[in-house]
Every structure is written in structure tokens, then in C-alpha cells.
Please model this.
Amino acid sequence: MATDSKEGGQELVFHPMDQFIVKPLFGDGPVGLFTVTNVTFWMVLTVLAIVALLVLGTSSRATIPGRAQSIAELAYGFIRKMVADVAGKDALPYFPYIMTLFMFIVFSNFLGLLPGAFTTTSHIAVTAVLAMLVFVAVTVIGFVKHGTGFLGLFWVGAAPLPLRPILAVIEVISYFVRPVSHSIRLAGNMMAGHAVIKVFAAFAPLVLISTGIGLVVTPLSILAITAIYALEILVAFIQAYVFTILTCVYLKDALHPAH
Amino acid sequence: MEGDIAQMGQFIGAGLASVGMGGAAVGVGNVVGNFLSGALRNPSAAAGQTATMFIGIAFAEALGIFSFLVALLLMFAV
Model:
């Protein structure tokens, strides 16, 4: 998707959004429903990395944990504490799913930071499925646990009576935009960060084309890539954390719908 | 010059919608700034409230995401 302007030598070498194109892994036929694409490849790699850390890493079950086992135990304890603190002790039966979500998102975010890698979570299609599953699951749990009492979530008992119908409308709207903001927050953050890195990466080889301005721009853009990469490492973790903690908040609403 | 008035409108509209993300930046900065000023007054209580801060950030950010969504819809769906 390189720019096809006829200005000559100065256009970007590659388009910053090229990295998000879904391609078949073998050959270059059309992408169908069951085509093995680079998304499939990186998702499989993500799952394999999680299995390597959580299953192989803890297989020795040492009393004094090694490096892999300590990281696996840290991650387990971190998420378990988050679920117990934010969603309450009675949300612990749902802890395995939340742990799975967190590990999948954090690993695909970090694997996407490898140069040349594909970030699966930068696609709204991927994050929308994750967010819709959370949304549907939470709604079903709410209705199964409380029946119609779950609708009390939309009827703010603490507000004055004339205000309650208006608040109910707002609450219903905010309930149904949850999967939208939940999914786009993750995809947008990952996509924007990687696109910024690629924009600076396109400026970096400028010294090869024109000697004058390139001597200033190239070191600056390499510095900028380094700085933004460091920021992206932070963002990769924080977005996985935010996705998980919001899942816990939604789960708390389903388990304790009364305001 | 290529394209038409409708396409120009899409691009201008998407750019205008992006301005809304500045509001999310103000909101997130407000949340973190107030958290920090509270945390520096009472550092012992701060550790327990970081999760609340992240939830607040996420809710403040959600409204910026909607302006991003409008920009995306204008660019690719209209």
C-alpha cells in the first residue's frame, strides 16, 4: 500500500498501516473464513508462549521456585487478588476465565512488540470478540443469579424519584456501549502506538536519500522510536490490566446489581 | 486534485472528531493528578486505591474512544 504519488524520491518507503494487513501465511490467495493467516500464526504463538510459561514453567512444582515458576506464580497471585478485591470473593469461581483473558492479551501485546511481529490485539475484530464474550457472559450471569432483579442495576435507588427514569435511560445506554469502549480501547491503543513507531521508522532512513536534512532527522527519529518503544512496553501491560479490571467491574455489577 | 466534496467532508469531519480525544486527555490527566495529590498527602492509603484510579482512567478514556469511533466511522463506514 505504498504511496503512489509522483513527487519522486521523498515519499515514505512504506505505509505506517501496512503492518496491520491480514495476509495468508502460505501463498497469497484470498483470505477466507478458514484461511491460515498471520493473525492465526501469532495467536497460536501467543497460546504456545502462555502454555510454556504456565504449564511447563510450573511443572517442577519446586518449593523454592525458579525464574519461570516465580513469574507464573506472580501472575496468578496478581490476577487472583485483583478479582477478589474488585469483583468480590464470590467472583472467584470466574477467576480462571479472567486469568485466561489477561494472559492472552498481555502475551499478544508483548509478542506484537517484537520487530516484524503482528499484533493480534490491534484488530478490532479480535478485541470485539473478547469484549462481546465478556458482555454476554456478564449479562447471562446477572440474569441467572438475580432473575429480573438484575434490572435493578438500571434503577438507581439512591437518586430522587423524579430523576430515576432519566438515570435509567442513561444507565441502559452506558450498559450497551460497554462492549464498544471495552474493545476499541485495547485495539485503538495498540494500533495507535504501533503506527506511531512505524511513522518514525519511515523517517529514519532519510539520511540515505537526502544528505542535508537527514543528518538532523535520522538521529532524532531513532531517539523517538526508542522512547515510544519504551512507552509501548508500558502501554502493552497497562491495557491488558485495564481490560481485565474492567471485566472485574462488570462482573461485580452482575453479581451485586443493587446500587 | 481528485475526490469529491463528500470525501473532503469525510476527512474534515474525521479531523474535527479527533479534537474530542483532547477532552479524554484532560480527563485522564485530571484523574491521575488528583490521585497523585491525594496519594502524596496520605501515601499509606495510596496503594489500595490504584485499581480505583485505573477504573477512573478507563471511564474517562471511554468518552475519548467515542470520538475516535466517530472518526473511524467517517473514514471507513460512511
Summary: Chain A has a mean pLDDT of 87. Chain A touches chain B at residues 82, 85-86, 177, 180-181, 184-185, 188, 238, 241-242, 245-246, 249 (CB under 8 Å). Helices of chain A lie at 38-56, 67-87, 95-112, 124-146, 164-176, 178-203, 206-209, 211-255. The first helix of chain A runs from residue 38 to 56.
